[in-house]
Amino acid sequence: MDSLQMRARSIRSVQWMAVTATLMAMNVALSSFGVPVPGGHLYLNDIVICTAGILLDPLGAFLVGGVGAFLGDFFFYPTPMFVSLCTHGLQAIVISLVSHRMWKEKRVFASALAVAIGAVIMVAGYSLGRAFIYSTPAYAILKLPFQILQAVTGAVFAMIICFRFRLLRIFERSFLPGGGN
């Protein structure tokens, strides 16, 4: 590997870290407060988690989704922090894998399937986690509509941001080797 290739690889590594850290910080910030809705709160960090899954590799997606949600809970509401680590981490990894490895020529469809699967993982993970943490399935069922709303909101807005607003195209052109070609 010549010096120019090593320099390009080093620059891509720094760019990857910067994008991952920025998205992780956004996840921490958005998990620190919820939008009040009748009967509870709606957290918008799923938008960042789904977006990271579409944009990043599985490791970067896990760091943004799992570790970012863990830190947001750790700083502001520590009870479900391990549920967030596992649930959002798995959600982000699955979104990344499905989005990047299925139907490469039809990225929109692959990403739509990916965020749909991710939404199911998030709803199921938090429902089971809440039932375990609070020792009552009734509480988990009570919060189920908010989990579904959060998952759908995250999935829909991530798709809009990545495809309608062309963030995926910008990301690939700016940060992938060969300019996304």
**C-alpha geometry:** globular
Strand order of the largest sheet: 1-2
From the N-terminal CA to the C-terminal CA, the straight-line distance is 22 Å
Count of helical stretches: 7
Which consecutive residue ranges, at least 5 long each, have pLDDT under 50?
none
Which class do the helix and strand fractions yield? mainly alpha
The biggest beta sheet reads:
2 strands, antiparallel
Count of individual beta strands: 2
Descriptive overview:
79% of the residues lie in helices and 3% in strands. With 181 residues, it is mainly α. A two-stranded antiparallel ribbon has the order 1-2. The two termini are 22 Å apart. The model has no long low-confidence stretch (mean pLDDT 91).
What would the keywords be for this entry?
single chain; 181 residues; mainly alpha
Write a brief caption for the model:
With 181 residues, this protein is mainly α. It contains seven helices and two strands. It has a two-stranded antiparallel ribbon with strand order 1-2.
What does the secondary structure layout of this molecule look like, with pairings?
Blueprint: H1 3-30, E1 35-37, E2 40-42, H2 45-55, H3 58-76, H4 81-101, H5 107-133, H6 137-164, H7 167-175
